[in-house]
User: Which sequence fits this backbone?
């Protein structure tokens, strides 16, 4: 007889147990066997199928496959990703004419008075090599407000109608921590940087249809389809910089009961009260969505020349970027998050921004904060002294290797040869003992974790000596990214049964083969996530 005879008090009956069998079970420490015994939402045992098999135990067999701990992405924007799947993309546009065509086509299907929002504008891949301006947009779409958002989310281009709705004209002064490009005569070009984008997204917020719950759920399901079992979800209490239609937090909370993967939400909040309200709402959101902390910005992007640098950019020496960190405001918000049991994640790309954030985190640690709750997002360009400081403090570097895939053509000219050696310095950070977490920042980059893992190893050719080993790259997207969102990716009894099943071994594969590995199944908390065939994603 089986069933209850084999259970001990506190465990589920045998009926909730099942065995998942593949060719290998592997984590960053090596091969652990070929099977995992699940007990409801938890792992019960890891080992050889021959030892774990039982006549009445159901088996799911994946011949030829490798099971790894559930892949986690420590930093992506789920509502922005949903927007990127449902709003026009400019990523493939070759030149201004192609941008104009895409915007005109979108306007043709948009009711009069509604806003046209297009995402993933990339001046580095346009033939003109620069951002388009409002004159082009006014010419093609005079009768709708238009906002094009650069793929980094830190820079946008508005037409005259959109600027007018936000009450901006040529006489409007630049906001704090933001700027508006002007021509020689002081006339606005329509290019908005950092906080200068916010009044326009706010003015257009009610004029774009909000994303539907189905669209947000489908986007989250697409994340499962690429092998992700959990993510650090960056979500704004307002419209944010991607969706242009209502509060991102509202959209996610509406979808929460149907989201198939775990989401630890890092809230982009305006002040401690806004954060507390968001944490309270997330506590009751249901499903697999939970409050995980706060996200704060210290600077902008390398692409937009808005990363805060100690010295000017190599290709724009007079520009040292945009400092968005108000240390007192940020410290208050950080303390509020820690009080709520949340983490503190601060976006810092330039070396000056990273230094300022490390100063702030050093203060928080002196006040008693656990360094394990503190993360720097991107940690892109670092001084040698600050690499040492990462290791000494034990603050997590939340990195996005896939950025390099988009930046091979221009990163060297932006930061110059010396700083390039300490840009995305994964090897140096790991060598001083920095906890590392991997992410995509999607929709900045595609959410696919395997090409991202490959970029952590071969760096798309950029300073290959800063690459991680195959085991370290697997850890980056399993134990590393899980730790940064408060999840366990350990393959041990009692750990959550979140697993990714691949058609080849990601450690034995070289980086090129790793990019092509397929995802056979994604198990979240003991259940295989069904991915309907209509669910879409994008890769470039
Ligand atoms: Zn981000």
Assistant:
């Amino acid at each position: 007889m089986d069933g209850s005879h084999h259970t001990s008090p506190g465990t589920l009956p045998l009926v909730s147990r099942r065995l998942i069998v593949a060719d290998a079970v592997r984590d960053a420490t090596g091969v652990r066997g070929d099977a995992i015994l699940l007990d409801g939402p938890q792992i019960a045992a890891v080992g050889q199928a021959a030892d774990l098999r039982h006549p009445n135990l159901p088996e799911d067999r994946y011949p030829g496959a490798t099971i790894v701990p559930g892949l986690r992405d420590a930093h992506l924007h789920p509502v922005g990703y949903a927007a990127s799947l449902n709003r026009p993309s400019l990523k493939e546009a070759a030149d201004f004419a192609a941008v104009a065509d895409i915007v005109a086509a979108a306007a043709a299907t948009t009711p009069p008075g509604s806003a046209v929002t297009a995402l993933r504008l990339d001046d580095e891949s346009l033939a003109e090599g620069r951002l388009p301006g409002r004159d082009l947009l006014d010419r093609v779409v005079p009768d709708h407000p238009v906002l094009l958002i650069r793929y980094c989310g830190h820079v946008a281009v508005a037409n005259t109608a959109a600027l007018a709705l936000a009450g901006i004209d040529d006489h409007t002064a630049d906001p704090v921590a933001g700027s508006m490009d002007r021509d020689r005569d002081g006339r606005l070009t329509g290019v908005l940087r950092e906080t200068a984008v916010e009044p326009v997204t706010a003015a257009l917020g009610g004029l774009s249809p909000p994303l539907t719950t189905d669209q947000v759920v489908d986007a989250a399901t697409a994340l499962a389809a690429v092998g992700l079992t959990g993510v650090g979800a960056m979500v704004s209490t307002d419209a944010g910089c991607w969706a242009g239609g209502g509060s991102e937090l509202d959209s996610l909370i509406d979808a929460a009961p149907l989201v198939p993967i775990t989401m630890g939400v890092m809230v982009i909040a305006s002040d401690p009260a806004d954060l507390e309200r968001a944490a309270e709402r997330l506590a009751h959101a249901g499903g697999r969505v939970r409050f995980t902390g706060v996200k704060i910005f210290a600077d902008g992007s390398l692409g937009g020349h808005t990363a805060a640098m100690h010295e000017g950019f190599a290709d724009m020496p007079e520009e040292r970027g945009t400092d968005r960190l108000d240390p007192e405001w940020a410290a208050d918000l950080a303390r509020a998050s820690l009080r709520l049991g949340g983490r503190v994640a601060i976006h810092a790309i330039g070396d000056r921004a990273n230094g300022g954030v490390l100063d702030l985190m050093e203060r928080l640690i002196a006040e008693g904060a656990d360094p394990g709750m503190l993360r720097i997002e991107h940690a892109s360009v670092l001084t040698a002294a600050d690499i040492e400081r990462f290791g000494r403090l034990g603050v997590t570097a939340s990195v996005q290797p896939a950025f390099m895939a988009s930046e091979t053509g221009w990163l060297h000219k932006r930061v110059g040869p010396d700083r390039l050696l300490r840009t995305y310095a994964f090897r140096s950070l790991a060598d001083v003992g920095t906890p590392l977490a991997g992410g995509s920042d999607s929709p900045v980059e595609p959410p696919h974790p395997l090409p991202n893992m490959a970029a952590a190893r071969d760096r798309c050719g950029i300073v290959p000596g800063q690459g991680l080993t195959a085991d370290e790259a697997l850890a980056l997207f399993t134990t590393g990214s899980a730790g940064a969102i408060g999840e366990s990716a350990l393959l041990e009894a009692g750990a959550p049964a979140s697993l990714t099943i691949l058609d080849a071994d990601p450690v034995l594969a070289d980086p090129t083969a790793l990019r092509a590995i397929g995802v056979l199944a994604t198990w979240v908390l003991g259940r295989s996530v069904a991915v309907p065939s209509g669910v879409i994603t994008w890769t470039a």
